[in-house]
């Protein structure tokens, strides 16, 4: 069929043509926005899930919902080697600029921007006489007003962020709306900054201020937040984003195809769900390859079988391979053992189940390698920092990437 008309979009953070199976999450966020608009207390929101389940797409969609309600918004992507000061400052600057045209007191906006500038500039390391130590550190946040003094500029990120968020929420209250800050890859926020975010959200929830944080991260994000502040378990509303069920996966494939006057045979949909496992990124990847190989409508199971190797080859390079290449030989050995242990054998020795996305006890990994668990801690910790595995429960690890175990078992040792 015509590849130009191919409706599927297997891209990182790229919205699929049909956002299937996420109606509940969109409805929940609508309720959050409406409750805050009516002055009701509400919690910030955290989305968690494996890679490829569409967290970034959903985060962007939630932001669109906030914008449609005339909220101020800003989005950042956390990095493990970066403080939150500058990204948060940039996000809040964007959010307040969206609100400024509706504010009746320009002086009030300028006063907040002065606080925001002071907050942002505290991130610059200083050398002798208080001057920036390097040219690249002489960063300015693009705010024309002079930096304020005595507010959000103490240098303690927890104190400063509470004050900054409180002032931003006050600006939003003036125009009868709210501010939402969206943070992707939130598990990569440093411990000190996570603690500050929790403290700021805690303060805002207590006073009913119209500012919320919407984060997205890997499945261990709740554990990261809990390690920073014990009350974080009650502070946020957690939503686990998982694979699509069969109905939603079929909708993600069929709805875009129907708009192009193309249909699927039922056996083709059966095979596509088996291949993709219902993971949204894989649904798009297999759908795109199948469309390009199918000669005509309706698309058949034979078309899927012909196209599957191409989809799998693309995933092996772009989705799996790029991550595998980041691991050291010792880390690859650790992951290969994880992949082997996810195979569940029957009494006769044959494989009866492939729990490729299940958690594996670290003690079993050590036993399989003939090593003491403590000696494997560096490899495990490095893999967690690289975002290749996570520890959802004490003493276990699992892959952050769906079907990664299956991929690893096809790689030469």
UniProtKB/TrEMBL annotation:
InterPro entries: AAA_16 (IPR041664), Cyt_c-like_dom (IPR009056), P-loop_NTPase (IPR027417). Residues 1-20 are annotated as: Disordered. Transmembrane segments: none annotated. It comes from the Bacteria. Keywords: Heme, Iron, Metal-binding. Residues 173-324 form the Cytochrome c domain. GO terms for molecular function: electron transfer activity; heme binding; metal ion binding. This is Cytochrome c domain-containing protein. It comes from Micromonospora lupini str. Lupac 08.
């Amino acid at each position: 069929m015509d590849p130009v008309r191919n409706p599927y979009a297997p891209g990182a953070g790229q919205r699929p043509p049909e956002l299937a199976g996420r109606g509940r999450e969109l409805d929940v966020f609508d309720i959050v926005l409406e409750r805050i608009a009516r002055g009701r207390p509400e919690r910030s929101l955290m989305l968690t899930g494996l890679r490829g389940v569409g967290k970034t797409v959903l985060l962007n969609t939630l932001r669109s919902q906030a914008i449609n309600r005339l909220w101020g918004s800003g989005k950042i992507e956390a990095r493990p080697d970066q403080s939150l000061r500058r990204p948060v400052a940039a996000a809040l600057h964007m959010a307040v600029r969206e609100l400024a045209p509706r504010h009746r007191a320009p002086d009030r906006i300028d006063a907040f921007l002065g606080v925001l500038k002071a907050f942002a500039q505290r991130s610059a390391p200083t050398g002798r006489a208080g001057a920036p130590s390097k040219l690249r550190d002489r960063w300015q946040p693009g705010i024309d007003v002079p930096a304020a003094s005595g507010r959000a500029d103490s240098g303690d990120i927890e104190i400063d962020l509470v004050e900054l968020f409180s002032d931003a929420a006050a600006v939003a209250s003036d125009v009868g709306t709210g501010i939402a800050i969206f943070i992707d890859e939130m598990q990569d926020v440093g411990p000190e900054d996570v603690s500050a975010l929790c403290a700021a959200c805690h303060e805002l929830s207590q006073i009913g201020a119209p500012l919320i944080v919407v984060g997205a991260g890997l499945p261990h994000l709740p554990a990261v937040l809990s390690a920073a502040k014990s009350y974080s378990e009650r502070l946020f509303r957690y939503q686990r984003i998982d694979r699509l069920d069969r109905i939603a996966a079929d909708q993600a494939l069929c709805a875009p195809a129907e708009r192009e006057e193309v249909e699927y045979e039922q056996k083709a949909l059966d095979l596509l769900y088996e291949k993709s496992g219902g993971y949204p990124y894989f649904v798009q990847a297999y759908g795109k390859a199948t469309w390009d190989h199918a000669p005509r409508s309706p698309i058949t199971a034979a078309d899927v079988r012909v196209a599957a190797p191409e989809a799998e080859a693309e995933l092996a390079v772009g989705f799996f391979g790029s991550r595998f290449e980041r691991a050291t030989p010792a880390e690859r050995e650790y992951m290969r053992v994880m992949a082997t242990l996810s195979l569940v054998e029957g009494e006769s020795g044959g494989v009866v189940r492939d729990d490729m996305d299940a958690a594996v006890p670290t003690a079993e990994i050590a036993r399989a390698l003939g090593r003491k668990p403590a000696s494997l801690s560096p490899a495990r910790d490095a893999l967690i920092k690289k975002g290749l595995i996570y520890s959802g429960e004490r003493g276990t690890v699992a892959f952050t990437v769906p079907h990664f175990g299956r991929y690893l078992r096809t790689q030469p040792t």
